[in-house]
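Re: that chain you flagged

S.,

Sorry for the slow reply, it's been a week of failed gels. I finally had a moment to sit down with the sequence you sent. For the record, here it is as I used it:
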Amino acid sequence: DLVVRGGLLRALGFGAGVLLSLCGVVFVTRELGPVGYGQFQTIISLLVVVQSLTDVGMATLGMREYAQRRGEDRARFMGVLLGLRLVLTFLGVAIASAIAVLAGYSTALVVGTFLGGLGLVLTVVQTTIGIPLGAELRISVITAIDFTRQALTAALYVAVVMAGGGVLPLLAVVIPVQIVLLVWTVGLVGDRVPLRPIFDRIAWRDLLTTSI
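Prediction finished late last night. Pasting the structure tokens below so you have them in one place:
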């Protein structure tokens, strides 16, 4: 029953979030025009690829291991996971920024790639720290966070367009959005998850071997 209700809630939240996202896209498209919006989407797609490649099953692994471990063992695992995901994401953002430079993109797009990448780093931190929410099946909270992400993004897109901003502030919108969500998530689970990453190459190797 809990799974059914949770699935229905997630579906409703997803649908409402998509509608808000479409409203934001309309404003962005009108502001940037066909060519500018195509460039904007190219950068977004590049960052999505970075996110996908650097995840390598970490989210699923984190959920499973968090549920199975206890005490100091769990805390150390989460710290190691956070450290590894941060390093992989920073590396991916650096590569994405280099690609933007080598492709001859404008300064605004190159800087926007880097700022969008910083937003991606914040996203990785927030989702990693938020793993207990999924392990505890707190579906309503997860749905609320996802909906807030889409609603804030759409609202800031509209605000940037109304202020006459261009592609650079639009690409940077993810930063304030993720700061809000990160603070929210830390308030929910900060007492159960270490907020300091652990940098341990041997432990990272074991994690990568397990997740791939």
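What I noticed first: The chain has a mean pLDDT of 87.

Talk soon,
D.
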